Amino acid sequence: MTLQRDVDTLRNIPLFSKIDPSKLKLLAFTSERLEFQPGDQVCAQGERGDAAFIVLEGEADVFVNTEEGPVRVARLGKNDIIGEIAILCDVPRTATVIAASALVTLRISKDAFFNLVTQFPEVAIGVMHELASRLHQTTQRLIEVSARLRRYEGDAA
Asked: E strands along 40-151, which residues?
């Protein structure tokens, strides 16, 4: 794929839509396009987060390790961000991401990602919105699980 096609792809992602094309060209040039087959691991829970990934095509499942084994907590698709928590918080990856279909991503290094969010406040706001949305969804799931657990404990008593 050509650099101009990558720039055009980035421009169509809401998070990057207001960024100057010359900056998008630099981002596309410094990023790496990666392709994954179904079942391939994009990143693993616990590993060092040195990059974020933007999903260009396909879908990926997000798994969190538990005592009972891996639990799928989300499915990500076109224009979604993978791995931003690890690079923003400087913590190990919080989940394992597996390609659910043929998956094409753009790998953005930690440095390039930080340059992007510091130069373009609208990108930082978009990332914050995404993180807040994921936190809300997680909180809702915890509330549901907690209610089911209380019902189960009540039935068992």
From this structure: 41-43, 51-57, 60-66, 69-76, 81-82, 96-99, 103-109
Helix, strand, coil percent values for the chain (each to nearest 5): 45, 25, 25
Q: How far apart are CA 45 and CA 64, in angstroms?
A: 7
| The predicted structure's pLDDT at residue 157 | 63
Structure tokens at 57: 């095509």
Whether 77 contacts 58, CB under 8 Å: yes
Q: Sketch out the chain's domains with CATH numbers.
A: 3-156 (2.60.120.10)
Contact assessment for residue 123 and residue 20, using Cβ atoms and an 8 Å cutoff: no
132 vs 34 pLDDT, higher one = 34
Q: Which residues, 6+ apart, have CB-to-CB distance to 14 below 8 Å?
A: 79, 126
* Burial class of residue 69 (count of CB atoms within 10 Å of its CB; 0-12, 13-18, 19+): exposed
Q: pLDDT tens for residues 64-84?
A: 998 889 989 889 999 888 988
pTM listed for this prediction: 0.78
Q: Letter for the amino acid at 63?
A: F
